[in-house]
Amino acid sequence: ARTVYHKWEVKYEYKSPDCYKKLVITINGRSPGPTIFAQQGDTVFVELKNSLWTENVAVHWHGIRQLGTPWSDGAEGVTQCPILPGETFIYRFVVDRAGTYLYHGHYGMQRAAGLYGSIIVSLPEGVPEPFSYDYDQNIILNDWYHASTNEQAAGLSAIPFVFVGEPQSLLINGRGKYNCSLSTASGSAAGVCNTTNPECSPYSLTVVPGKTYRLRIGSLTSLSALTFEIEGHDMTVVEADGNYVEPFTIRNLYIYSGETYSVLVKADQDSSRNYWATINVVARNPATPTGLAIFNYYPNHPQKQPPTAPATGPPWNDTASRLAQSLAFRARQGFINKPPVTADRVIVLLNTQNKIDGHFKWSLNNLSLILPQTPYLVALKENLTGAFAQDPPPDGYDFANYDIHSLAENVNATSSSRIYRLRFNSTVDVILQNANSMTVKNSETHPWHLHGHDFWILGYGTGKYNISCDWRKYNLVNPIMKNTAPLHPYGWTALRFRADNPGVWAFHCHVESHFYMGMGVVFEEGIEKVGELPSSIRGCGESEGHHRP
Ligand code: C2O
Ligand code: CU
C-alpha cells in the first residue's frame, strides 16, 4: 500500500459556478475540490490549512469508515474540535475498500458554500471489477444558493424562521446556469451575473461511439433529491456507496444527498449529435431549473447543444416510483455480505419537525441534537462527564398514540446532547419513521447517513412501521449495504449495522439545513478500545486542567 499525500488550503474566493458571482469556499482554488485518487489499502494524508480567516472548518470523509482512526472522521463536535482560522490540521486515514466516496465540510453549513469533492478508491493491482467498462468518469451533483451560508444559518435560527428556500440552480461537476435576467438590474450591471462566463459553461462528457463508460455519480446537495438521466441512454447500476449491487437497468437514477452510485452507460446512440445529461429536483415542488451537462459524442464539438429539449424528469411528487427504485436494489451475487439474522437492540427514531423556544427544529423521538463544546470522542475518552448530557435518549416513541399522518406540534421536544451508547460488537437495528412536518399534508424526504459504518438496508415501507409484523418483510437474503439511505415521505426505512468500529459516530439527515436544525443522533461503541487520541483534535472545549469559563 502506498501513501497519498494532499496539501490543501481552504479559503473564500469569488467564483461563478452558475454564472452568478459570489464567495465560494475553495480548496487550492477549486470548488469542487481536487479528487482524491487512491488504491484500496492506501493511507491518505490531507494536510489542511484553514485560510478562511474568520471561520472554523472541518472536513468529513464521507463513506470512509475510519477503522482505527475515529479522530480523523472530521465531524466537528463529535470527533474533533474545529480547525481554527490560520491553523493546519492533518487528517490521516486508510481507504480500506475500493469504491466511490465523497468529502465535504462538516462545520456549520460550509458544505453548501462549495467545500466538497470526491474520493475514488481503485481495487488493488490485478483484482478485476466484476463488470467491464472502457473509461471511468466522475460526476458530482449539487444544488446551489446565492445567499451565503451564514445568511442561511441566521435565517434558520431566527424568530420568525426564515427557510433557505429552493436552490437557485443545480450543478453538475460544479457548473450550472442561472438565468441572469432574474438577478437584480444592479447585480447584472456590476457584472455579478454573466452567462457568457466560461466558468459556467456546461460540463461536457466526451464519449467515443461504441465504448462503455463507468459514471461515478455522487450527490452532495444541501436540500434537493435529484433524478439524473442521459437522454436516449440506458444506465446499468453496478455500485452503491462502495458496495457492488446486482446490475439493473434504468432510465433515470434517483439520487439523494450523500449517496454515490456507479452506472455503466454505453455510447450506442446516433453519434452525429450530442445529448443532454440532466438533473431535476424531485420530492419537493421544484422552483429550480433543470441542471444540464452535455453527453458529447466524439468528434462533435463538446459544447454543441443537443437539438432536443432537456428532460424534465418524472413528476416531482411520484413517491411511489422513488420507493420502487429504492426497493429494487440487491447485493451483487458473489459479493453478498449477509446480515446477522436478529438484532440485539432496536432503536426506532420518529422524525418530526417542531418548535423549541420559538425556533423551528427537527427532532428524533422529541430530541433535537445540539453538539457539545467538547467533542464527544474527547469527552468520552477522558471521562469528562460534564461535557454532555449523560442520560440516554429513548429507543422509541409512543407508537400507539402518535398519528404520523397529521400535523403535530410535538410540544415536548427539547434540544439535547444525549447519545446512544451501543454494546461493542452488538447488532443494532434502526427504524426510521417519517411523519407529517409542521406543514399540513407534508412529509419530507430525509437521506440518513451513518458515519463509521455501512448498514444493511433491510426494508422500506409506507405508513407507520408495525413493530409486531413489519420485520417479516425484511430482506435478510441479499440486502445491499450503504452508508446513506432515504426515508421516504410518510414511510419507514429499516437499517441494521454491527457496532464494531470503536469510536463515536454521527448518524444524521444529510439535508444541510435539517442537520443544522438538530436532525441527528450520535452513537458510541467500544470507546475503551479507541487508541490514544492525537492532541490535535483538542483545540477547544474541556480537558483535564482546562475548562471553559
Ligand atoms: Cu456526508 Cu455527516 O455527512
Ligand atoms: Cu432531513
TrEMBL record:
Localisation: Secreted
Keywords from the UniProt entry: Copper, Disulfide bond, Glycoprotein, Metal-binding, Oxidoreductase, Repeat, Secreted, Signal
Stored CDD domains: CuRO_3_AAO
Enzyme class label: oxidoreductase
Cofactor dependency: Cu cation
Domain Plastocyanin-like: 10-123, 139-299, 405-526
Stated family: Belongs to the multicopper oxidase family.
Description of how the protein assembles with itself and partners: Dimer.
Name of the protein described by the UniProt record: L-ascorbate oxidase
Gene source species: Salix suchowensis
